[in-house]
Design a protein that fits this description.
Elements: H1 3-7, E1 24-27, E2 30-33, H2 36-53, H3 55-72, H4 74-93, H5 112-140, H6 155-169, H7 171-189, H8 202-205, H9 212-248, H10 254-301, H11 304-326, H12 334-361, H13 368-399, H14 415-420, H15 426-455, H16 465-500, H17 502-521
Antiparallel strand pairs: 1-2
Helix pairs in contact: 2-3, 2-9, 2-16, 3-16, 4-7, 4-12, 4-13, 4-17, 5-6, 5-10, 5-12, 5-13, 5-15, 6-11, 6-13, 7-12, 7-13, 7-17, 9-10, 9-12, 9-15, 9-16, 10-13, 10-15, 10-16, 11-13, 12-15, 12-17, 15-16
Length: 524
Amino acid sequence: MNQMATDRPKSQEYTSDYKAGQDNVQIMGMDVHNPVFTTSALAILSFIVLALLFPADAKEMLVGARTWSIETFDWLFMIGGNVFVLFCLALIFLPVGKVRLGGASAKPEFSRMSWFSMLFAAGMGIGLMFWSVAEPVAYYTDWWGTPLNAEAKTPDGASAAMGATMFHWGLHPWAIYGVVALALGFFTYNKGLPLTIRSAFYPLLGERVWGLPGHIIDIVAVLATIFGLATSLGLGASQAGGGLNFLFGIENNISTQVGIIVAVSAIAIFSVVRGLDGGVKILSNINMTLAAVLMLFVILAGSVAGFFGNLFDTVGAYAEDIIPLSNWMGREDEKFYKGWTVFYWAWWVSWSPFVGMFIARVSKGRTVREFMIAVLLIPTLVSAVWMAAFGAQALDQIQNNVGQLTNGLGDVSLAMFKMLENLPMAEITSALAIVLVLVFFITSSDSGSLVIDSITAGGKVNAPVPQRIFWAVLQGVIAGVLLYGGGSEALTALQAGAITTGLPFTAILLLMCVSIYKGLKTEV
């Protein structure tokens, strides 16, 4: 560090004269950063064209890249995930935990309930709807490997299934999100840098972060975000279509799924135009209320005593298995380990630019300690309660030979509905589940559009409305066009492409940890 930097007051370290949007250009009513916007848009459109013209080739190439990443760098994904958990837990207890995002006098913009609802809905609300039943059933029945080679369809197998499901939806994914969110929140609100991914690397790259290295980081973040959201939109349309077929006999074909995507995208556009307060916050609060109602019903309709027993067993299994499941050396359950855990870690990392940046956007005014408790510990507890209500209920039904799940998992998108049909008022709860799936997707689309908009606007958080609409429309177009023109092969290729970006971003996140600590130390 040069003499000028050394003489600078600590609170001014890692600040820059660069202003958000200073390199922007105005095009068709939009305020965009060139080359990030242009390169990202061209890359996305090129992918759509190639995937439609050569769906089988695109799938083969991208699935091959995904497989190579997972097979070759499984150790990096696992080490990275463990480092992120330990790093985030340490920040809760270290003196830097008292640092407040935005400075000592900063005040939170949202109530704790609205804040948590938004970060949880963006982080994994939709995933819990899709996998909270399907995943434990898959492990218990050996659909694609069992965790730690537990024997399928046994009490030990049930315990391992719940522990492994919590492992995939607990501390590790939220730590991944927490690293990105804290880095962006701190360097934006405390150091005055633009709200964009590259800002987190200012302590490592200095002013070079506003040049080519920063362009590359932001472009990769945009591609990972848009591909991940479009994939989830396509998969969510499949689950919602399955629910409509299950309830009303509507055929779950490509036309139905594309229709769902169009409807979701239309509502998402309306919401994103209204902005953070008038759109995402309201929908997120509705989401959490409906989710709480559905979960409470499942608990009461089953057995309250059984639920608390399942919750105790789930948390216990998670605590017992977290260390062996975190290990990457000498694993004998390779089919499960690489097919599920490493795949998940790559998926969470590929989503981290989007989710982390959105969490940062809504977290000004929180201390680092409060932030990490809300982003890491509370969501893990909520996930445990959710899994004990839904996943353990499904396993109880199988063990008691009740319902269709006893015949195996079958169509993953129908797992939740097959569990609900064995409880009272199945049609009402299934309809509520469909609504939840759709609203969770709308909030994900909204928050994703706001994030991509900020990155491609050079870190500006209030870009023109046409710009927000552009990204919200593009998500739906990608999902709908690929689903209609290329079917499941094109969607699988898109998902593989998104997951492959998790490899470079794992290394980027590890460097982020260094940046965060260097930055936080200047504030203590």
